[in-house]
């Protein structure tokens, strides 16, 4: 088949895979190739079991694969034939040298730029899909355009706003798509080409155009604002626990103000995921490097509060269990950083499991999708941790159960059965506020939720 355009995506992860599958579904006239250096990942995309769990994704991949959606490890060949290249490689926090612990590690991104240049026989549109520090496009342009082949590359920013667990719905029906470019004639022409892709299915009014720096910065700011709401309500949850106010009632009362709005006000054991902390720390580092110390400190407090909230949860377990958990079996229901994903990156469950193991508890980790990854994340904990997919078996003989991920099936568990199999007195810690606490208390549990007065039988 003769395709109108050839699109390449470098990086077949949580962003590259789903976004390109959706573009393939909506743009049958375009050929989409997704490449990665991770051969196992590419083999999985081409196999019966795709490498990430994301509701609805497998069906889209199955429908488009080998029609106009291709997965390959041949990065060089992909670059050679592409007209437009999306780059969705990982941009983790730098762990060494200048800016370690805060700045974005751009080594994967820069390698990609050099590889694009080495394999290009014509100028191309390069689209930043990864989340990057503001003004990265400038460095990329310098690398790409300082060539002796006379080639010109336009670097655009098209950050991704999908959330894991709802990626397909988010991609199919996005609140907005943001496309930033240079405001030169070449930049605007390239911008139009990227707009044309999304205009296949996204209403034109939801496609926002901006300059390239605004697009880069907006992605960091969106994540910072979302995370800030979670830290704000979590800070109030601690105050609620001291004052007999109920954080759910407070969140509802403030969220009905249309200026505040109801979303992202669910108090929890803390936010996780690969991006919130990483992107805020990146923002903090950028502010520091421009001498904006007060701005940096303001945003850093969002991350600090989140770390404190996770440690506070461990403390609550410890103090409720008579200040010792040594040798006590504690079942953690949920290990993924949120429901409907197998992703555990920066999951608060990691902090909780480690905090309890440090106190020599016998931690049992259960999760419908994330147990294989949990085994990797906690492999250094040795005999302090066990893994059990079945939540009932995980809770057998436990002194305490803690809900750490809001999986729907945990709401429907038979808690009479669980209580009967546990040690007495039985403790339940709801780190996601998804259970009926009064009903569980009436059954005999001692119940500790986030931002609520504990329901204790003694
Ligand atoms: P990921 O780690 O799941 O995937 C990145 C992939 O890039 C990996 O498979 C890796 O092997 C590949 N890669 C790295 N260097 C490469 C190279 N030189 N050539 C080819 N492949 C290479 O990461 P992700 O979660 O998909 O995130 C990617 C970017 O998107 C990050 O900047 C992240 O901040 C951003 N983002 C992520 C999400 C999310 O929900 N995970 C949402 C929005 C934005
Ligand atoms: C987040 C953003 O929502 C996406 O827009 C963005 O594209 C993505 O980061 C990214 O850049 O990677 P994601 O991390 O997948 O998406 O999931 P969220 O739904 O935002 O949840 C993040 C964390 O906050 C989870 O641990 C979740 O449980 C927690 N959370 C969320 C709360 O504790 N309370 C809330 O009210 C909402």
Q: Please provide the count of β strands.
A: 14
Strand content: 5-15%
Taking the alpha carbons of the first and last residues, their distance comes to 73 Å
CATH topology of the largest domain: Rossmann fold
Form type? elongated
Strand order, largest beta sheet: 3-2-1-4-5-6
> Which ligands does the model contain, each kind named once?
nicotinamide-adenine-dinucleotide, uridine-5'-diphosphate-glucuronic acid
Instruction: Count the domains.
Output: 2
CATH H-level superfamily title of the largest domain: NAD(P)-binding Rossmann-like Domain
Radius of gyration: 24 Å
Q: What is the number of helical segments per DSSP (H or I, 4+ residues)?
A: 18
Largest sheet: 6 strands, parallel
Structural class, by secondary structure, is alpha/beta
Question: Which CATH architecture of the largest domain is right?
Answer: 3-Layer(aba) Sandwich
Task: Assign the CATH class of the largest domain.
Answer: Alpha Beta
Instruction: Catalogue the unreliable spans.
Output: none
Oligomeric state, counting identical vs distinct chains:
single chain
Helix % is: 40-55%
Q: What average pLDDT do the residues reach?
A: 97
Please describe what this structure looks like.
This protein is of the alpha/beta class and 458 residues long. The protein contains 18 helices and 14 strands. The strands form 3 sheets. The protein has a 6-stranded parallel β-sheet with strand order 3-2-1-4-5-6, with helices on both faces. A 6-stranded parallel β-sheet has the order 11-10-9-12-13-14, sandwiched between helices. A two-stranded parallel sheet has the order 7-8. Strand 7, helix 8 and strand 8 (207-211) form a beta-alpha-beta unit. It is elongated, with a radius of gyration of 24 Å. Uridine-5'-diphosphate-glucuronic acid is lined by residues 131, 160-164, 223, 226, 230, 264-266, 268, 271-276, 337-338. Uridine-5'-diphosphate-glucuronic acid binds at residues 131, 160-164, 223, 226, 230, 264-266, 268, 271-276, 337-338.
């Amino acid at each position: 088949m003769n395709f109108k355009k050839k699109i390449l995506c470098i990086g077949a992860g949580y962003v590259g895979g789903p976004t390109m599958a959706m573009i393939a579904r909506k743009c049958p006239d375009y050929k989409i190739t997704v490449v990665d250096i991770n051969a196992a990942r590419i083999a999985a995309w081409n196999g019966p079991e795709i490498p990430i769990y994301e509701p609805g994704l497998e069906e889209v991949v199955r429908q488009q694969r080998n029609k106009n959606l291709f997965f390959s490890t041949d990065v060089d060949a992909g670059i050679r034939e592409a007209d437009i290249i999306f780059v969705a490689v990982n941009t983790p926090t730098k762990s060494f040298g200048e800016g370690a612990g805060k700045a974005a590690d751009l080594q994967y991104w820069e390698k990609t730029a050099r590889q694009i240049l080495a394999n290009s026989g014509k100028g191309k549109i390069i689209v930043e899909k990864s989340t990057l520090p503001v003004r990265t496009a400038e460095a990329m342009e310098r690398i790409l355009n300082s060539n002796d082949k006379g080639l010109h590359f336009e670097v655009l920013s098209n950050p991704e706003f999908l959330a894991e667990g709802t990626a397909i719905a988010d991609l199919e029906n996005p609140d907005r798509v943001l496309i930033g470019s240079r405001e030169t004639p070449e930049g605007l022409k390239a911008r139009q080409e990227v707009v044309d892709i999304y205009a296949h299915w996204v209403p034109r009014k939801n496609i926002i155009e901006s300059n390239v720096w605004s697009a880069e910065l907006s992605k960091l700011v969106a994540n910072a604002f979302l995370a800030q709401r979670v830290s704000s309500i979590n800070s109030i949850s601690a105050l609620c626990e001291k004052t007999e106010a109920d954080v759910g009632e407070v969140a509802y009362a403030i969220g009905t103000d249309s200026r505040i709005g109801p979303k992202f006000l669910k108090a929890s054991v803390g936010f996780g995921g690969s991006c919130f902390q990483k992107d805020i720390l990146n923002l903090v580092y950028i502010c520091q490097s421009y001498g904006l110390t007060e701005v940096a400190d303001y945003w850093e407090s969002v991350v600090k509060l989140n770390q404190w909230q996770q440690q506070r949860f461990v403390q609550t377990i410890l103090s409720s269990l008579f200040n010792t958990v040594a040798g006590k079996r504690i079942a953690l229901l949920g290990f993924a950083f949120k429901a409907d994903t197998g992703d555990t990156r920066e999951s608060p469950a990691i902090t909780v499991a480690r905090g309890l193991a440090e106190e020599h508890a016998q931690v049992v980790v259960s999760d419908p999708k994330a147990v294989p990854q949990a085994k990797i994340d906690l492999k250094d904990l040795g005999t302090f941790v066990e893994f059990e997919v079945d939540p009932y078996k995980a809770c057998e003989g436990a002194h305490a159960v803690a809900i750490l991920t809001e999986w729907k099936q945990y709401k429907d568990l038979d808690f009479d059965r669980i209580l009967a199999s546990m040690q007495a007195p039985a403790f339940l810690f709801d780190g996601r506020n998804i259970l009926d606490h009064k009903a569980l208390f009436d059954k005999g549990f001692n119940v500790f939720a986030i931002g609520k007065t504990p329901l204790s039988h003694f």
